[in-house]
Design brief:
Layout: H1 4-70, H2 72-80, H3 83-97, E1 101-105, E2 111-116, H4 125-132, E3 138-144, E4 147-157, E5 161-171, H5 173-183, E6 186-192, E7 197-201, H6 204-210, E8 224-228, E9 231-239, E10 247-254, H7 255-259, H8 263-306, H9 321-348, H10 358-370, E11 379-386, H11 389-396, H12 398-415, E12 422-426, E13 429-435, H13 439-453, E14 457-459, E15 462-464, E16 468-475, H14 482-494, E17 503-505, H15 510-529, E18 533-542, E19 547-559, E20 563-565, H16 567-577, H17 580-600, E21 606-609
Parallel strand pairs: 16-17, 19-21
Antiparallel strand pairs: 1-2, 1-5, 3-4, 4-5, 6-7, 6-10, 8-9, 9-10, 11-13, 11-16, 12-13, 14-15, 18-19, 19-20
Helix pairs in contact: 1-3, 1-8, 8-9, 11-12, 12-13, 15-16
Length: about 625
């Protein structure tokens, strides 16, 4: 995933790149289109220059050949067929005209005399005669013996044509170089030979271009393009001579050369496009660093905040939005730290007494036990139960009950000089962890606790009586886990036996008795509803008459798993769980039924039923 700095750089670079790319593209496209138009115009102009130049050249050559045909001595030699004179005249005029071939032809194209290169094949000479006609000057070009020749043919008249003089000129690189100098273009002259295409040029590139199969004369002299060696060329073709097929001129221009004047413009456009991009990137880097550094600090602070580290504030220089954001973040961090500290305190302390709660005390107890792997340390767990809290809450209200708990805790802390590990673990139960105290020492501490509460708790001008019961469990004799020690101290307080016994240490087997009581508590209601109890009657004797005068109803419970249970065992359980009224109604119902049955049999017996104080 991209970072904020990378995103800023990417967006800035993209925007500038798109804008500059559009500008550079427009400049380069315009330049390329202008180059193509200029190349088209240059080729068209070059073709016009060639046509005018070639027309003047052909006219000059025609005049030279016509001068020979008009010479009187030459005419007489032709008429008399004086071969020596004809040969001499042809040779002299060919030299003056710089012709490579000089021919004297009859009307059928048969060679009467010749000088220069021997390229006569007896097949193409008649074409020369036909090109001149009866009175004009004929021009013709073609390939012969691997070369391209231009022929100027004129008739010899006396006064009618009696023969034709034709002079041939080799088309070579010198001619194409002259044309290149005139047109400023690359020139090649191409002819279709009998077996192959022949191209003549002053350089290899135009010659190779002329040999391409697609390079041939078009109907409208249109400019076309071809690629050669990876370079593009624009070219135009035209017949070397008007009306002549098979020999044509190819004018071409390299698009790279045509683009050369625009190279500086291209470079300037690219540089002008690259400079803003570079400046934008530098600015974006500066902006990204300016923005991302504070953001990175905020992100790091957020990470610290996530793991609960509120100690380090965010430092951002300046008075801009990011600095104000950092200030707001610091305020938020302080607020969160304060709230978390308060929440943590509330999670580990009791809201009524402001003392440590059960979780805090057990964690501290667990830490002390874990720090003693050899089990050499003595630790006492003292549970203090305020038996009168329920009655106070029901009679005086919960606010008074809370004040009662707070005042009782204050009395105990004052008596014990504010012990560090003393707290409230339940509504009416306190817990003290006595470090490095023996069981006897813990008993003495418990006695001091009971003594601090023996005269009641003064509250709003009253002394509210409290009946504290204290249970003690010691590490490591009574247990090696904090939960286990708390449970056993609680069981010891609950199994105090008599109300007169306020302090009791845990004994082995207390948990079994506690489990039996819990099972009875769970099954008593269902046993009453299922009529699983039994009622027995203890008779009363009148001493004067020695007769039965009444009976006392006694309830019995044969538990299916726990066996015979004494009323002294399950009646207190019924009172503590709120089921005593259900048990009392069951006993009354069964006693009344028994009385009715006895009366039906003629026995008038009074039955006594024991009631609980809660009834």
């Amino acid at each position: 995933m991209l970072s904020l700095r990378s995103k800023i750089l990417l967006v800035a670079a993209t925007l500038v790149l798109l804008s500059q790319a559009g500008t550079v593209f427009a400049v380069l496209t315009t330049a390329k289109r202008d180059v193509a138009e200029r190349a088209t115009r240059a080729l068209g102009s070059g073709l016009e220059v060639f046509e005018r130049t070639n027309e003047a050249r052909m006219s000059q050559l025609g005049s030279t050949v016509s001068a020979l045909a008009a010479d009187f001595g030459f005419k007489r030699a032709v008429a008399t067929r004086d071969e020596a004179t004809l040969q001499s005249a042809l040779t002299n005029h060919a030299m003056r005209a710089r012709a490579d071939i000089a021919l004297l032809l009859d009307g059928n194209g048969r060679v009467l005399a010749q000088t220069g290169l021997d390229v006569v094949d007896g097949k193409n000479e008649a074409v020369l005669v036909r090109s001149a006609g009866a009175a004009g000057v004929g021009v013709h070009a073609g390939a012969r013996s691997g070369r391209i020749f231009e022929f100027i043919t004129v008739p010899v008249k006396a006064p009618l044509p009696i023969a034709w003089v034709s002079m041939g000129f080799t088309v070579d690189g010198e001619l194409t170089r002259q044309l290149e100098d005139l047109t400023g273009l690359r020139v090649a002259i191409v002819a279709e030979g009998a077996d192959e295409r022949i191209a003549v040029s002053g350089g290899p590139i135009p010659r190779r271009l002329g040999l391409l199969s697609e390079v041939r004369p078009g109907r409208n002299k249109e400019v076309r393009r071809s690629e050669l060696d990876g370079e593009e060329y624009a070219w135009i073709t035209s017949a070397l001579m008007p009306g002549l097929e098979g020999v044509w001129i190819v004018l071409s221009q390299s698009m790279a050369d045509a683009m050369a004047p625009y190279r500086l413009l291209q470079t300037a456009a690219l540089v002008l496009g690259a400079v803003p991009i570079l400046l934008a990137l530098i600015g974006a880097v500066f902006l990204a660093r300016t923005l991302t550094r504070p953001v990175q600090r905020l992100a790091a602070a957020a990470d610290r905040l996530r793991i609960g580290d509120y100690s380090q504030p965010v430092e951002v220089d300046g008075r801009d939005e990011l600095a104000r954001l950092a200030e707001a973040f610091n305020v938020m961090q302080d607020g969160i730290a304060e709230r978390e500290e308060r929440i943590t305190y509330q999670a580990t302390h009791d809201s009524v007494t402001d003392m440590p709660n059960r979780d805090y005390l057990l964690k501290r107890l667990t830490a002390c036990i874990e720090a003693d792997p050899g089990r050499h340390r003595q630790i006492g767990v003292i549970v203090v139960h305020l038996n009168a809290l329920d009655e106070i809450g029901e009679s005086l209200g919960h606010d008074i009950a809370d004040a009662f708990v707070f005042q009782a805790a204050t009395l105990v802390r004052e008596e014990l000089d504010d012990p560090p590990l003393f707290g409230r673990v339940d509504a009416d139960t306190f817990l003290m962890v006595a470090l490095d105290l023996s069981a006897d020492a813990c008993t003495r501490v418990a006695s001091r606790i009971v003594g601090s509460l023996q005269f009641g708790v003064p509250l709003h001008g009253m002394d509210l009586a409290v009946q504290p019961t204290v249970g003690i469990a010691c590490y490591p004799t009574d247990g090696e886990a904090s939960d286990q020690l708390l449970l056993r101290a609680t069981i010891a307080a609950a199994n105090r036996g008599s109300r007169s016994v306020a302090i009791r240490r845990y004994r082995v087997g207390d948990e079994v008795r506690r489990g039996r009581q819990t099972r009875m508590l769970s099954d008593l209601r269902s046993a009453v509803r299922a009529d699983a109890l039994s009622l027995v009657f203890q008779p009363k004797l009148c001493l004067a008459t020695r007769r039965v005068c009444g009976a006392e109803a006694l309830v019995r419970w044969q538990h299916p798993e726990l066996g015979e249970s004494s009323p002294a065992e399950f009646v207190p359980i019924a009172e503590q769980s709120g089921n005593i009224s259900l048990l009392t109604r069951w006993v009354l119902d069964r006693a009344i039924r028994a009385c009715r049955a006895w009366q039906a049999e003629g026995w008038d017996i009074d039955v006594s039923v024991n009631l609980s104080a809660q009834d």
